[in-house]
UniProtKB/TrEMBL annotation, chains A, B:
Pathway: Amino-acid biosynthesis; L-tyrosine biosynthesis; (4-hydroxyphenyl)pyruvate from prephenate (NAD(+) route): step 1/1. This is prephenate dehydrogenase. Belongs to the prephenate/arogenate dehydrogenase family. It catalyses: prephenate + NAD(+) = 3-(4-hydroxyphenyl)pyruvate + CO2 + NADH. It comes from Methylomicrobium album BG8. PROSITE patterns: PDH_ADH. The keyword NAD applies. Residues 4-292 form the Prephenate/arogenate dehydrogenase domain. SUPFAM superfamilies: 6-phosphogluconate dehydrogenase C-terminal domain-like, NAD(P)-binding Rossmann-fold domains. The keyword NAD applies. One of its GO terms (molecular function) is prephenate dehydrogenase (NAD+) activity. Its EC number is 1.3.1.12. Keywords: Amino-acid biosynthesis, Aromatic amino acid biosynthesis, NAD, Oxidoreductase, Tyrosine biosynthesis.
C-alpha cells in the first residue's frame, strides 16, 4: 500500500480518475475527497459511486492523517488551494498536482510558502476526455498515457520517486523534465492548437451569423475544430497561466502564415507543395509515436 | 435513364464514386472512363471492379456518343482537360465537373472556349474520404452530402436542371450559388483550415526534429492535425486556385490572433473567456446543422 490515506482536492474528471485508478491498483487504503460547499452534490455523487470513501467541505479534517495529497483543481485555482493547505502542511505527507501548466504552480507555491516545499512534486498527466465531472472518471484514464513530473533542485528524491511509482502503477509512462521545458512543449502541442481552434471558430462563427457558411462545412472541419468545444474556463486559465510560452509561439505561427501567404502570392507551387509534404510527413512521425 | 453514355474524365475516388453512385441508382446505361497513359493500371482496376464498363486512353473515342461528361481531375488540371475536350465539344452532351474551387473552372473555360459554354455546369460535391484512388470509391459517398452548383447567366436551364437531378438522385442535397460565393464559403470552412493545419504541423515538425515535442502530444492534437495528412498536390492546387479568397482570410485570421495575443498580454480573462465561449457555441451550431 503506497498511501494509507490519500486526499484528492477537487474530485472532477481527473481527480476522480486518480481516485478510481489508485483504488483499482490498490495504491491507497483510504481515499477521501475535498471540495467547496458548492461542490457538495458532486462529492455526494463521488461517494455514492465509490470513487471516494468520504468527503469533507473543511480542509482541516480532509487532510487529517493524510500521507498523500493530489491537487486536481483548475489551473487558475492552484494558489488559493496552496493558501488553504499552508496551515496544515505536513512533513509526513507527499503533495502533488495534475495541472496542465507547471511554472505557474511553482510560482504560486513560492509566493505562498516562500520557497517551494521539498515534499511538493508538480506533475501533469497528459490525459483528458470530452466529458467532465466525476461521473466521467475512469480507472484506466492514465493507461499508456504520458505523465510529466517537473521536480525542482530541492525536491526530496524519495517524494519524487514515490510520485513516479504512483503514476507508473496507474499505467502512465513517466517523463521527468523542467517546468519550463514542460510548458514550452505543451504550449506547442496542446495550448497553441486549442487557441488556434478557438480563434478560427470565433472568427468563422461571426461570418456564419451573416451568411451561413457552416451549412457547407464537412467532416474535416468537424475534426479540426473539435478542441474548440473544450471548456472555456479551463482553457482561459491554461492560456493565461502559460502566456509567456504562448505569445512567442503565436508570433512564430504568424511568421509561418506570412511565409505561406507569400508563396500563394508568388504562385510558388513548388515550395507550397514542399511545405504541405513536410507537414504530412511530420504528422506521420507523430502518429507512429502515438501508436508505440 | 438520365444518360445513355456517361464519360468520367479521371476515375479516382470522386470520379469512381460518381460512376458507382450513378450505376447503383440506374442513372446511366453505359459508363466509360478516360485517363492518361500513366493511369492505365488504375483504369484497369476500375474496369475489373465494375466501376466503369470500358476505358479509353484517347479522348476522342472516350467521348464518342457520350451525352454526359463528368470531369473529376485535380483542380490544377482542369484547363488542360478543357483543351482536350474542345475539338470534340458537342451540343448533344452536358458537361459538369467536381472541382473544389469554382471560379478557376469558369476562368479556365473562358480562356479555352472564349466564353463559358451553356452546356457546362460547374459543380462541387462536398465529400471526400481519407483514402484516394478508385479502390476507395463508394456508391453512397454523396448520400446526405452537400452539392453546390454554380451556374452562369448563360447556363442552359435544362442542363442545370439535369445536373441538379443527377446529384439529387445520388443522394446529395443540392444548393445553387455563384462561383464567387462558393469559393468564399469553401475558403473559410475548408481551404483555410487545411492551410492552417499544414502551417502548424510544418512549424511544429521542425521543432520536433530538435526536441521531440510530438512525444507529448495527445488525442486533441491528432484530431486537430488530421487534415494535415491530406494529399499535398491536391491542396497545393486548391490553395493556388483560390488564393484570391484565401489571402484576405489569412489577414483576418492574423488580426484575430493579434486580438487574442493582446487579451493574453493584458490578462483580460473576461474577454478571453467570452471569445472561447463564443467559439464553443458557434461550433455547437455547426454540429447541430451537420446532424440535420
Amino acid at each position: 500500500m503506497m498511501f494509507d490515506r490519500l486526499c484528492i482536492i477537487g474530485v472532477g474528471l481527473i481527480g476522480g480518475s486518480v481516485a478510481r485508478a489508485a483504488r483499482s491498483q490498490g495504491l491507497a487504503r483510504c481515499i477521501v475527497g475535498y471540495g467547496r460547499e458548492q461542490e457538495k452534490p458532486n462529492l455526494e455523487t463521488a461517494k455514492r459511486l465509490g470513487v471516494i470513501d468520504e468527503y469533507f467541505l473543511d480542509i482541516g479534517p480532509a487532510l487529517r492523517e493524510a500521507d498523500g495529497v493530489v491537487i486536481a483543481v483548475p489551473v487558475g485555482a492552484i494558489e488559493s488551494v496552496f493558501e488553504q493547505l499552508k496551515p496544515y502542511w505536513s512533513d509526513n505527507c507527499i503533495y502533488s498536482d495534475v495541472g496542465s501548466t507547471k511554472s505557474n504552480v511553482i510560482v504560486a507555491a513560492g509566493r505562498v510558502f516562500g520557497t517551494v516545499p521539498a515534499n511538493l512534486v508538480p506533475a501533469h498527466p497528459i490525459a483528458g476526455a470530452e466529458n467532465s465531472g466525476v461521473e466521467a472518471a475512469l480507472p484506466d484514464l492514465f493507461q499508456r498515457r504520458r505523465l510529466i513530473v517537473t521536480p525542482l533542485p530541492q525536491t526530496e528524491p524519495s517524494a519524487l520517486n514515490k510520485i513516479q511509482v504512483f503514476w507508473e502503477r496507474m499505467g502512465a509512462q513517466v517523463s521527468v523534465m523542467s517546468a519550463d521545458h514542460h510548458d514550452a512543449v505543451l504550449a506547442a502541442t496542446s495550448h497553441l492548437p486549442h487557441l488556434l481552434a478557438f480563434a478560427l471558430v470565433d472568427m468563422l462563427g461571426r461570418q456564419d451569423e451573416q451568411c451561413e457558411i457552416f451549412k457547407y462545412a464537412a467532416g474535416g472541419f468537424r475534426d479540426f475544430t473539435r478542441i474548440a468545444s473544450s471548456d472555456p474556463t479551463m482553457w482561459r486559465d491554461i492560456c493565461a497561466a502559460n502566456k509567456e510560452q504562448l505569445i512567442p509561439l503565436l508570433h512564430q505561427l504568424k511568421t509561418e502564415l506570412d511565409k505561406i501567404e507569400q508563396l500563394l502570392a508568388d504562385n510558388d507551387g513548388r515550395r507550397l507543395f514542399e511545405t504541405f509534404s513536410y507537414a504530412r510527413n511530420a504528422r506521420q512521425r507523430f502518429l507512429d509515436q502515438l501508436e508505440n
